[in-house]
From TrEMBL:
GO terms for biological process: double-strand break repair via homologous recombination; replication fork processing. ATP binds at residues 22-29. Coiled coil: none annotated. Residues 1-276 form the UvrD-like helicase ATP-binding domain. SUPFAM superfamilies: P-loop containing nucleoside triphosphate hydrolases. The keyword Plastid does not apply. Keywords: ATP-binding, Helicase, Hydrolase, Nucleotide-binding. InterPro entries: DNA_helicase_UvrD/REP, P-loop_NTPase, UvrD-like_ATP-bd. One of its GO terms (molecular function) is hydrolase activity. It comes from Aliarcobacter vitoriensis. Pfam families: UvrD-helicase. It comes from the Bacteria. This is DNA helicase.
Length: 503
């Protein structure tokens, strides 16, 4: 195996703990496994970001002889250590469950009839998620202050929070207590937080070394669990692939003070493409005063332009949003090509009970609505206002989908299902959002034009926060680095010049 000098430096490092900033496709997993092989005397835990990465890593391990290395997700570790099988688990807190809980609590404890607004319940849900992902222990004003700093809140939600601080802190405690006592289903981040709070269980893991993958996207509570261990640590990730702040992920590579190593060469695409992409993105990162990208590639050929995509061969369509994906999808459903969705068709907000419910809300056929949360709205305009206030992008995408295609959504769904294959190898076109494509690669990529542009960054009418601009540029970078041979890049409007007349 031919290793780069950067890889050799890491594999032969004498540092006990360190961090690695690795660009997309730079062989970070292989580097970590070779580092583990170099240290056969250590009992090693490899923390994978999610289950699918854990499975792919275990496949890769077949080529290495590493009896001293175990692979797990941090949630799986917490699940077993804390006995999370004792909880009733759910992937998402339902607002109607929170509503019942809050109403009952206020009636029984304060002898008051209290009916929280949908905005209040959405805020409560978000704060419960935030608490479970942060490293704070107390549920107090400090929690709310940290939440405000890390969240991009609308004026309406901020006003609700400021006017109800004491009440909402009480309600957070009630929700967490109800999860613990199995009165309501617990989210997976809840047992992770319980694991962190149980110092006896979480501080004595039997390992000499922990390798933490995707370190740019782990939460503060995950960082705290790792940092509480009395062992060596290696954090590896890519600061430019930090795209999960909506899940309260924070970049451990920036937060942890350890010696730094770098993997700047991608084995996925050509050096000429790497430099072209580096220059394009750095032009916009510099506007946001962000640290610049350093990206290198192979001595090969990766072409830029739609004319280089051979549509007689399989290609992948990557969009920023599900609505951007459906717009591109509609262009292809008459071509009779076989289509595949990363993560499965049902995981996209195209046609499910939520879409049906919002469609019937628009039709004012409220008796046909099956989603409890949507039953609380009289009109689709009310729901849209709520979605904007709470930054619920799923609802906004669905509303845009329904407003654009109307009754045709049923015919579109029918045509998609007729062309759908469940085996990726059989597909002519693969459809995915950037978040679902993370960690994957494709021969040919077509990026949909729904990513951030220079015009969005300079827009003074609707200014974006520093954090939002940075993450949107990172999302573009993740999509653009999935390619091997040919790509149509989304337009970044590099030549756009802002004028005062637009303001």
């Amino acid at each position: 195996m031919n290793l780069t000098k950067e890889q050799e430096l890491i594999i032969n490092s004498k540092e006990l703990s360190f961090k690695i900033n690795a660009v997309a496709g730079s062989g970070k997993t292989t580097t970590l496994l070779l580092y583990a092989k170099k240290n056969p005397n250590l009992k090693i835990l490899y923390l994978a970001y999610n289950k699918s990465l854990q499975v792919s890593l275990q496949d890769k391990l077949k080529d290495f002889q590493l009896p001293n290395l175990s692979v797990s997700t941090i949630h799986s570790l917490a699940y077993n250590k804390i006995g999370a099988y004792n909880y009733n688990l759910t992937s998402d807190l339902k607002t109607y469950i929170l509503e019942k809980l809050v109403i009952k609590y206020e009636l029984e404890t304060n002898q008051k009839s209290y009916y929280p607004s949908m905005e209040y319940l959405s805020l409560l849900k978000d704060l419960v998620n935030f608490y479970c992902n942060c490293a704070l222990i107390q549920i107090d004003i400090k929690l709310l202050e940290n939440y405000k700093k890390q969240s991009d809140l609308s004026a309406k939600i901020l006003e609700i929070l400021n006017k109800n601080e004491k009440k909402i802190l009480n309600h957070i405690k009630i929700v967490l207590s109800a999860m613990k006592n199995r009165q309501i289903d617990a989210i997976h981040d809840f047992y992770l937080k319980m694991f962190y709070l149980n110092k006896k269980a979480s501080t004595n893991l039997p390992y000499d070394l922990i390798l933490i993958d995707e370190a740019q996207d782990i939460s503060d509570v995950m960082i705290a669990i790792v940092e509480n261990q009395n062992c060596r640590r290696v954090y590896v990730g890519d600061s430019f692939q930090q795209i999960y702040s909506f899940r309260y992920a924070t970049n451990a590579l920036n937060k942890i003070d350890l010696p730094s190593f770098y993997l700047t060469k991608s084995f996925r695409f050509s050096n000429s493409y790497a430099k072209a992409l580096q220059n394009l993105l750095n032009h916009l990162y510099s506007i946001n005063e962000t640290k610049k990208l350093n990206l290198n590639g192979l001595d090969s050929s990766t072409k830029i332009g739609k004319e280089f995509i051979d549509i007689s061969k399989p290609f992948c369509v990557i969009a920023r949003t599900t609505f951007g994906l459906i717009q591109e999808l509609v262009k292809h459903i008459h071509s009779k090509k076989k289509i595949y969705f990363e993560g499965g068709y049902n995981s996209y907000s195209f046609m499910n009970q939520t879409v049906y419910s919002i469609f019937y809300l628009k039709q004012r056929k409220n008796d046909k609505i099956t989603i409890d949360e949507i039953k609380d709205f009289e009109t689709i305009n009310e729901l849209e206002s709520f979605a904007k206030d709470t930054k619920n992008q799923d609802y906004l995408n669905i509303i845009k989908f329904i407003n654009t295609y109307g009754d045709n959504i049923f015919e579109i769904n029918k045509k998609i299902k007729a062309l759908l294959v469940t085996n990726k190898e059989e597909a002519d076109i693969i459809f995915t959002t950037t978040h679902k494509a993370k960690g994957l690669e494709y021969e040919q990529v077509l990026m949909v034009d729904d990513f951030i542009t220079k015009k969005d960054i300079l827009n003074k009418k609707n200014p974006l926060s520093f954090q939002r601009i940075n993450e949107e540029l990172n999302i573009y970078y993740v999509a653009a680095t999935r390619v091997k041979n040919a790509i149509e890049l989304a337009d970044l409007n590099i030549n756009y010049n802002y004028s005062e007349s637009e303001n």
